[in-house]
Write a structure and sequence with these properties.
Length: 232
C-alpha cells in the first residue's frame, strides 16, 4: 500500500519568517486521522527567512532529525552544543529527559529544511546532539543511511529508535530497490525532482506513506533527491 500526500494539500502555516507545510498534524494544523505514520510523528517542510529562526524552546522524549535542503541552520542548545549544518547535511537531537535548543538561519538567503520527529524506543535518557556532512556524490544511485537506531548502521548519526533515515540522489531514468518488511512504515519525500515508487508517482515535496510491501523500487522521472524514513 502506498498513499500519496500531494504537497499542495498538506497542512501548514505562514508566520512571515517561517513558511511551514506539515505532512502530519502539528501545532495549529490538527487532523485526528493524520497523527503520524508508525513511530514517525512529524515531517515538516520549512522555509526559514534570512536572519530569523526558532528561538530557544524545550523538547523531551523525541528523536529530532533536521535535513538541510538549501542554505544552512545554526544550532545552539542547553547542553553547550553549537554548530552549523549546511545543505545536504544532517543534524540529530535526542531530547531524552529534556533539552532546550534554538535553530536559526543566520545566512543571507532563505534556508529550506525537512524537520523529522520519530518517537524513541524508550523514554528518558540523557539528551544528545550531533551533526555531520553527507556529500550528495556518495548517495548517487544508492541509499545512504543518514541517522539510525539500528545496530548495523555504524556509519550513521545515532538516534534512539527502531528505524533509520536515508537519502539518495537519482538521475532521470535511474532506479533503486529497497528491501523492507510488510510490517514497517516507510515515508518517502522527493526534496527535488519526481519519482515513481512501485508505480505511484510522487512529485517534488509530495509524501509517500508506504506499508505492507516486501520491497520498493524507486524510479526517477526527473533528476531527484530523496529522503526516506523506515520506521517501526
Amino acid at each position: 500500500m502506498i498513499i500519496r500526500k500531494p504537497f499542495e494539500r498538506l497542512g501548514g502555516a505562514d508566520h512571515g519568517w517561517l513558511k511551514a507545510r506539515h505532512h502530519f498534524s502539528f501545532a495549529s494544523y490538527y487532523d485526528p486521522q493524520n497523527m503520524g505514520w508508525g513511530s514517525l510523528r512529524v515531517w515538516n517542510d520549512d522555509e526559514i527567512a534570512p536572519r530569523s529562526g526558532f528561538p530557544p524552546h524545550p523538547h523531551a522524549d523525541m528523536e529530532i532529525i533536521t535535513y538541510v535542503r538549501e542554505g544552512a541552520i545554526s544550532h545552539k542548545d542547553s547542553m553547550g552544543n553549537e554548530g552549523r549544518t549546511g545543505a545536504g547535511d544532517v543534524q540529530v537531537m535526542s531530547a531524552g529527559t529534556g533539552v532546550r535548543h534554538a535553530e536559526y538561519n543566520l545566512e543571507s538567503d532563505t534556508s529550506r529544511i525537512f524537520q523529522i520527529w520519530i518517537e524513541p524506543t524508550t523514554r528518558g535518557g540523557a539528551p544528545s546532539w550531533g551533526a555531520r556532512p553527507f556529500p550528495k556524490s556518495d548517495r548517487a544511485g544508492r541509499f545512504v543511511t543518514l541517522a539510525s537506531g539500528l545496530a548495523e548502521d555504524v556509519d550513521a548519526l545515532p538516534i534512539r529508535t527502531n528505524g533509520r533515515v536515508l537519502g539518495a540522489t537519482l538521475k532521470a531514468g535511474d532506479s533503486i530497490t529497497y528491501p523492507t518488511d510488510a510490517s514497517r512504515h516507510l515515508y518517502l519525500v522527493p526534496a527535488v525532482g519526481s519519482v515513481e515508487v512501485n508505480g505511484v508517482t510522487l512529485e517534488a515535496r509530495d509524501g509517500g506513506a508506504i506499508t505492507g510491501e516486501s520491497e520498493i523500487t524507486i524510479k526517477a522521472l526527473a533528476d531527484a533527491e530523496i529522503v526516506m524514513v523506515d520506521a517501526a
